[in-house]
Write a structure and sequence with these properties.
Layout lengths: L4 E6 L3 H16 L3 E2 L8 E6 L4 H20 L4 E6 H6 L12 E4 L6 H9 L7 E3 L21 E5 L1 E2 L10 H5 L3 E2 L2 H13 L4 E5 L8 H4 L4 H8 L7 E4 L9 H9 L3 E6 L7 H7 L5 H14 L4 E8 L6 H14 L3 E6 L17 H26 L3 E11 L2 E6 L10 E4 L8 E10 L2 E5 L2
Parallel strand pairs: 1-2, 1-3, 3-4, 4-5, 5-6, 7-10, 10-11, 11-12, 12-13, 13-14, 17-19
Antiparallel strand pairs: 8-9, 15-16, 15-18, 16-17, 18-19
Helix pairs in contact: 8-9, 12-13
């Protein structure tokens, strides 16, 4: 008797990607064979995202595709998991006709029995499990990784205690919980032994790490210990929060040779009135002063941020002020999004919602400005030498890689010429040019 074959589609953020890797690891240990092509699978799991309307639509399209495949092929069952059912709850059940099981984001322990149950012949009807205790923030070990071997993500926390008006994450993922330091180090050692050279630290708010477990902010202590893990060469911090970036953390990023000089610090806006309406808890002056201290304290720092255009009540003056601030601050990496009205978020009930067209136009203006800033940054890089993590071959003697100032998937790449390198190598390269957002270089 052959083992059942399972395929998995992972949608949304890298935190969800880590969860997908954990689910696959549990299924593999339970005797399921993993399958890349759903058309050859007995069971298809869709691990959904439900953060924004656009993500919800993408998830529903993937679910519809899975149900349609079940109706015409060898596929026997469809399981839906993750943030979308966790957010929408039983109200989603009617929409998921044809789905065999639904599990919320906090039910990883149910994935194996759920998959076994839906593959049994004669099961009378689907079941829905949403409610569960707060998702534990234990280890994410024994994963089946979906990233290249040389790069990996470690989720150091779960949930969020901030009350940003536009966000529903606390409702989906619950309050903030740090993962114990030893659990993070165990994961790092396991990943490094499997070939990971780059470790990306992720969570809803990585810079609040330790406050709940140890009674203090202690991300810098974690960075010190991660730097001692053999095989790890790059450590990157994603999803920081401005109010929890300490002077100790700035010093550790600057002095630790394994911590790349890169920080992802979503600010969302720069104008005081809008920041207050967003309930960010970050005064505009504090935010600008923090950025100044980061630039001064960490030579060569690459700052990534996220901004939200068209928040309810954002005036033309607010928006022009935001553009002026971005022109002055000059974030090397920036993502801009048009405000999305999300049911259940505090901002949904606010007055002053702007037309979708205005929100998109403001987002596009931010992106045009950022293009100028990014291209100017690339021009300054020409002639410099920089460390590059080689990602994949492009042809004979040609490679694609990333500088230390570029996170996987979200940032630009550098295309290289050179020999005697392999994916996963960290090499010294000279930047010889640029092509749009990407760099061009050679390995001496």
């Amino acid at each position: 008797m052959t083992n059942p074959r399972v395929a998995l589609t992972s949608l949304g953020c890298v935190k969800n990607l880590v969860e997908s890797e954990v689910l696959l690891g549990r299924l593999a240990r339970a005797g399921f064979d993993l399958c890349a092509d759903p058309r050859q699978a007995d069971l298809w799991i869709v691990n959904t995202c439900g953060f924004l309307k656009a993500a919800e639509k993408e998830s529903l399209r993937a679910i519809d595709a899975a149900v349609a495949l079940k109706g015409r092929g060898r596929l026997r069952a469809v399981v839906v998991a993750g943030c979308l059912p966790q957010r929408r709850g039983p109200a989603l059940a009617e929409r998921l006709r044809g789905v065999d099981a639904v599990l919320g984001a906090r039910l990883r322990d149910r994935i194996v029995p759920a998959c076994r149950a839906v593959l049994r012949r004669g099961r009378p009807r689907p079941f829905l499990r949403i409610d569960a205790p707060v998702f534990p923030c234990g280890t994410d070990c024994d994963r089946v990784r979906l990233t290249p071997r040389h790069t990996a993500h470690i989720r150091i926390s779960e949930g969020c205690n901030h009350a940003c008006a536009f966000c529903v994450i606390p409702r989906i993922r619950g309050p903030y919980r740090s993962k114990p330091m030893e659990a993070v180090l165990r994961e790092a050692r396991e990943l490094a032994a499997d070939g990971a050279r780059e470790i990306n630290l992720v969570g809803q708010d990585t810079t609040s790490y330790g406050a709940d477990l140890y009674g203090k902010l202690c991300l810098e202590e974690l960075l010190k210990k991660l730097g001692d893990v053999p095989g790890v060469e790059w450590i990157r911090i994603l999803y920081g929060y401005p109010t929890t970036v300490t002077t100790r953390l700035i010093r550790e990023i600057a002095r630790n040779p394994k911590v790349v000089k890169y920080l992802d610090l979503p600010v969302q806006h720069t104008r005081e009135r809008v920041l207050r309406a967003m309930r960010r808890g970050v005064p505009a002056r504090f935010q600008k002063d923090l950025i100044r201290r980061l630039r001064e304290g960490i030579p060569g720092l690459v700052l990534r941020t996220t901004v939200l255009a068209g928040f309810p009540g954002e005036t033309r003056e607010d928006f022009e002020g935001l553009l002026a601030d971005l022109r002055e601050i000059r974030f090397e990496r920036l993502g801009a999004f048009a405000y999305s009205r999300e049911a259940g978020s505090p901002s949904d009930a606010m007055k002053g919602h702007l037309p979708a067209k205005v929100r998109r136009q403001r987002r596009d203006r931010i992106l045009r400005l950022q293009q100028e800033i990014a291209f100017a940054h690339n021009r300054r890089m020409v002639g410099c030498e920089t460390d590059v993590l080689v990602e994949r071959p492009l042809g004979k003697g040609r490679w694609e890689g990333r500088t230390a100032g570029d996170a996987p998937e979200i940032d630009p790449v550098i295309r290289l010429r050179g020999n005697s390198v392999r994916p996963g190598d960290v090499v010294r390269a000279r930047v010889t040019g640029w092509d749009g957002y990407d760099l061009v270089g050679e390995i001496p």
